[in-house]
């Protein structure tokens, strides 16, 4: 998940042990991003690379641009293919957690990445905090993503104003509230059938949770910073799209039928007037 950078430094993980500073620097440059410097972190005991580094930029805006444009993209010159795994080095350091309000964004064409989606929302809503385009194992967009805000008012405005908004994707986007993921009970074999819970509302949901359920990021730290990279990705795993396709006509019909039954029951339950004192009482009516 691409978050707002509070420092001009990015954390980069999943490094191969034979990657040097020159190789990583060239990887950024070949993608059109210039860095100021980087430092590969080594294990204090073994002296071997710890699998992550810190990349410095001239300012936090450049770091934000690199994070949004490169995160999840293929690193040039890697075989087998490896992808940029980036996050803000300052993520998780804030002592006071901010409230978060999320939106699901669908109907995204494959040319929309985190950078494009973030720019579209951030320039309209000041509290836009992060975005995430969901991709498959090959890095291809699945056509949907999530946007997070720190102010509920912005979330509610975006829900209305960005619905079917043109100009971001090759087709108008679809926006809805993202809801917390429901707990998934395992079956007798211990396996979890995600499709039983997420496949009925939208075709993307099941594959989204199957993909993100098996991907985590390592914890890491060094002399001057402590960075927990699992938090940003894991947070997105707690969201899903709510049920959007509501059969209004069916619900209205059911409501009207129930209302008629209640009305008839009330009418039948009224006391029937007696013609005379000798009239027999009517049999009781069941409601």
TrEMBL record:
<dbReference type="Pfam" id="PF17654">
    <property type="entry name" value="Trnau1ap"/>
</dbReference>
<feature type="domain" description="RRM">
    <location>
        <begin position="8"/>
        <end position="91"/>
    </location>
</feature>
<feature type="domain" description="RRM">
    <location>
        <begin position="101"/>
        <end position="180"/>
    </location>
</feature>
<protein>
    <recommendedName>
        <fullName>tRNA selenocysteine-associated protein 1</fullName>
    </recommendedName>
</protein>
<dbReference type="InterPro" id="IPR000504">
    <property type="entry name" value="RRM_dom"/>
</dbReference>
<dbReference type="InterPro" id="IPR012677">
    <property type="entry name" value="Nucleotide-bd_a/b_plait_sf"/>
</dbReference>
<feature type="compositionally biased region" description="Basic and acidic residues">
    <location>
        <begin position="220"/>
        <end position="230"/>
    </location>
</feature>
<dbReference type="InterPro" id="IPR035979">
    <property type="entry name" value="RBD_domain_sf"/>
</dbReference>
<comment type="similarity">
    <text>Belongs to the RRM TRSPAP family.</text>
</comment>
<dbReference type="GO" id="GO:0003723">
    <property type="term" value="F:RNA binding"/>
</dbReference>
<dbReference type="InterPro" id="IPR041085">
    <property type="entry name" value="TSAP1_C"/>
</dbReference>
<dbReference type="InterPro" id="IPR040434">
    <property type="entry name" value="TSAP1"/>
</dbReference>
<dbReference type="Pfam" id="PF00076">
    <property type="entry name" value="RRM_1"/>
</dbReference>
<keyword id="KW-0694">RNA-binding</keyword>
<feature type="region of interest" description="Disordered">
    <location>
        <begin position="217"/>
        <end position="238"/>
    </location>
</feature>
């Amino acid at each position: 998940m691409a978050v707002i950078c509070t420092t001009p430094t990015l954390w980069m993980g999943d490094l191969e042990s034979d990657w040097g500073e020159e190789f990583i620097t060239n990887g950024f440059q070949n993608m059109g991003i210039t860095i100021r410097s980087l430092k590969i972190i080594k294990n204090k005991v073994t002296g071997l690379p710890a699998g992550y580094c810190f990349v410095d930029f001239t300012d936090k805006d450049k770091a934000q641009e690199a994070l949004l444009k490169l995160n999840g993209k293929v690193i040039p010159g890697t075989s087998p293919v490896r992808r940029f795994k980036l996050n803000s080095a300052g993520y998780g350091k804030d002592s006071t957690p901010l409230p978060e309000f999320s939106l699901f964004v669908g109907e995204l064409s494959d040319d929309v990445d985190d950078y494009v989606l973030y720019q579209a929302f951030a320039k309209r809503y000041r509290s836009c905090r992060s975005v995430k385009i969901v991709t498959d194992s090959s890095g291809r967009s699945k056509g949907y993503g999530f946007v997070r805000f720190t102010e509920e008012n912005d979330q509610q405005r975006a829900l209305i104003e960005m619905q079917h908004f043109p100009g971001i994707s090759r087709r108008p986007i679809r926006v809805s509230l993202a809801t917390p993921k429901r707990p998934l009970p395992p079956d007798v074999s211990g396996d979890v059938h995600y499709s039983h819970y997420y496949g009925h509302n939208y075709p993307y949901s099941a594959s989204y949770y199957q993909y993100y359920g098996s991907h985590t990021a390592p914890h890491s730290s060094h002399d001057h910073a402590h960075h927990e990279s699992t938090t940003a990705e894991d947070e997105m795993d707690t969201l899903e799209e709510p049920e959007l396709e509501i059969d209004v006509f069916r619900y209205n019909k059911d409501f009207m039928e129930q209302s008629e039954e209640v009305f008839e029951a009330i009418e039948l339950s009224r006391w029937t007037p007696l013609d005379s004192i000798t009239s027999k009482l009517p049999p009781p009516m069941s409601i």
